[in-house]
Amino acid sequence: MGAAIGALATLCLHPVSRPFMTGVTSRASPAVLRGCIDSNAPSLPPPTTIVQASLWMQLAAHRILGHEKLSPKELSTVMAIAKAGAAKEQNNAFWPQMEAIFCIDGGDLAHAIEAWSMAANCQSWNDHQITRLMDDRAAIVDMTGVTQSWQLAYLYYARSDDVAYCLRAVARAILSNADYNKPDGLTKRYATLLNGELLRSHAHSSRSSISAMEIVDLTTSPSDAVALPVTPKTIWAGQDQVLRNLTSVLHQPDWAATAQKIFKENEAWRALTVHDSNAEQSELLALGTVLSSSVASAVIVVAVVGLFVWSIGRLVAWRLARAKAITPYVAAGIAISLGGLVEALTRYFPAAVAAALCAGFLIVAPDRSRKARPNDLGPMFGFTATLLGLICSSMFMIYLVGSTPAANAIFPNLGVPSDYFDKPLMAGLAAVSFGLVLLMAPIWAVVHRLGTPHVLALSLMRFGGFLAVMGLTLSIVLGPMAVYADRRLETAFDELVRNEPVYYDLHQ
To answer: Would you say 440 and 381 are in contact if contact means Cβ atoms under 8 Å apart?
Structure first.
């Protein structure tokens, strides 16, 4: 036991493992976490750097995508920022693409096509979102005081693909006036093809890459069908038409060769990176970040609670073991306290009544009790106490894990019901299961004709002892495992945030 406590103390004191052994003591509400993300800022100062300017572009795209039309003044402001960004980064297609988005939003198709063609002649694409996300992570680290993988998982879900979705809408608008058989229409299609390829090659998220592939696919659709869903048959037929006409109508065999290469790479990219399992994999990894950051500390709390319950059992055995029954006043006090606690935690009156009744039955005692005070009441007694210990500790650990900043950051993105995080419901259910431990005392007291206080003391000691030993053992085992798992998950999410398509390409 001394070695186990020493090992636990070492894990709690070591600077590497300490954050994982004390994770459940950290608190940060979802609102505080959202405030660390720059795109959630209530207002933006005038941009002074290219990175700040990119945030203006992202938020403007978000408003346009949400059908919130920009005012003429706002449109003029973001257009000026986009032009300034294009002047600073002349080879970055992101800025003229943003100009095209704003022109389409303002109803200026001619200037949108001009900006779209300018973007097609660029050699790179960078929306600077990764730089801003890493700055956001630094803000979260400063706020929480720890560096853990869940922070990157949170940024993975905070990443925006609004620009890619807006670019897809721009492609539809331009291609709706791009005839297969006319030089002007083919030029627009080729420019759209190059823009889609730039986005697909440099996008950092799978959703943006998929939008880019859809932009490439749109270039194969007839101008009157760009709003309709594409099928493999229409894509292949459209590709042949575009490739033939680039050579026969535009007399640009080099363009046709480039288009053919883009079409082939698009299909290869689709086969390698677009899988239904990708979302499931990222969700499992995100869940792992929550567990690695808090489970070890949760079992420590369970061990402490178990030791406290065991101590109460010892106190009952010392002071009341010779008593035959528990007085109604004491039982009523325990019932009211436990019922009130459950009501406060769960806000569910039937659960509070059930817990109070469990404690109220402590007044039950056999008419005649034996003088003997055996410590072994049979295997069923131990099994019941252990089973209730597992149920109670599981619910309490869910509550502890769900109240951490990691859970508040990740669980909403996984579709976890809010009852399981940032609410005391599970703690209330754990209190209800503890009420069943109190109910064990009168049941076994009547069956074995023993004093209820004696059986209550045995119930509490068996229940609390199990929690203490289990919590101590698991904390020693899970502590190093949590550190190792978190480092692996941090590496995975760092790759996912920086370049998600490449991550899935390498790990399929």
So the answer is: yes
Residue 209's nearest CA partner among 491, 507, 503, 501 is 501
Q: Could you please report the per-residue DSSP string of 338-405?
A: HHHHHHHHH--HHHHHHHHHHHHGGG---SS--S---S---HHHHHHHHHHHHHHHHHHHHHHHHTSH
State the helix-helix crossing angle for 149-158 and 277-320, rounded to 10 degrees: 140
Contact 293, 482 (CB under 8 A): yes
Give the pLDDT of residue 508.
Answer: 63
Strand-pair partners of 124:
92
Q: How far apart are CA 296 and CA 293, in angstroms?
A: 8
Residue 461 to residue 441: CA distance in whole angstroms: 12
Tell me the C-alpha distance between 310 and 299, whole Å.
16
Residue 10 has a CB neighbour count (10 Å cut-off) of 13
* Cα separation, 96 vs 57, whole angstroms: 11
> How far is 134 from 130, CA to CA, in rounded Å?
6
Q: In this predicted model, what pLDDT tens digit does every residue of 79-104 receive, in sequence order? A: 999 999 999 999 999 999 999 999 99
Number of H helices, E strands in the chain: 21, 0
The pTM (predicted TM-score) of the whole model is: 0.86
Q: Between the CA of residue 119 and those of 101, 128, 190, what are the distances in Å?
A: 12, 16, 12
Residue-wise pLDDT tens digits, 452-461: 888 888 898 9
